[in-house]
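Mods, move this if it's the wrong board.
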Amino acid sequence: MSSAPVSTSPAALTTAPLRAPTLMRRMACWLYEGMLMFGVVFIAGYLFSTLTQTRHALDNRFGLQFFLFVVFGIYFAWFWSKGQTLAMKTWDIRVVDALGQPITQARGLWRYVLSWLWFVPPLAVSWAQGVSGGEALVLVCGWVAIWAILSRFHPLGQFWHDALAGTRLVHVERKK
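Not the wrong board. Structure tokens:
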């Protein structure tokens, strides 16, 4: 595999060799994305509570969770169809399809749904076993570490939800 960075232009993505960013860069991007999502949650939560006239944080809890799930799906599908979220731009990472082309919003939405494999298995186990919040956090963190390390077993070093979605994360050269 070539170690030369890939240009950000869609035409160059088809001719230059694609290489996956390092696991550390992808996880740093993942954590940064999580921090940026606080702003999205704040705005969406404020909008939801205003529109539904929610006065208490636990009122309409499941409605708010569903609303945030939809807002996150729209956010990620839209940005991924453009190639990058803000965090991905910061870490020089782009999402493309298996051939190196930009992904569609439908594929971005499919990638979003599959990305919940990072959280659903440990949360389901936590719910089924009735574990406490602290124990659930340990399960989630352990599963995230395992899921990230499993990318080492993918032939192209990709996360498995990307392989299932037909997408790839690639390193892009920063524009000067």
